[in-house]
Write a structure and sequence with these properties.
elongated; mainly alpha; Arc Repressor Mutant, subunit A; Tetracycline Repressor, domain 2
Length: 206
Amino acid sequence: MTEETASRPGTRRGPYAKSARRQAEIVASATSVFSARGYRGGSLREIAKQLDLSLTSVVHHFPSKSALLVAVLENADSAHADSFTADCREEGVAYAVLQYVHRNLERPEMLRLLALMAAESSAADHPAHEWFRDRYDRLIETLAIAIRRDQDAGRVSNSRAPESIAESLVALWDGLQLQWLINPQRDLVAAMRSSLADLLEPQRQN
């Protein structure tokens, strides 16, 4: 790299990379704190202390506790999103869900955070209330589109409206994950596989 190239704004990556790393560290710390104490119980000071930073340094990257919460939730929820979408298109909803469940087994802290925040955010004045409402709307819409595609392809025999099936799928997914978080000895993958079969391919009545 020439001196001229290094001086161009678009190529000065050092400060940007450092800032991104710091933000990632803050989000990781906040994930741990919020998972353990909830949003109201956790504090920016505790997050800063965990990282041996000043409160000013944390606020420089995230000007408010609610802004940091949104960043934490987005990070927890976005993992494997692209793979899930591709799996839905190529192999179907059942396969995509099971693959996602397998991957989620490696990040219980993220699942615990989402479960805890979802419960807390049922209060209309919670900072994540709108975020979770939008999240569920998007998730149900995404699953409904994939289920309709599977119905047309013959991969889903349940003829109910895709939106109705999607709502049921989200409910059983959340419920089974919560049971697993409470008791990790449960076989989450087996439980999800069985529930998917019952939901997507119900036995026809004679």
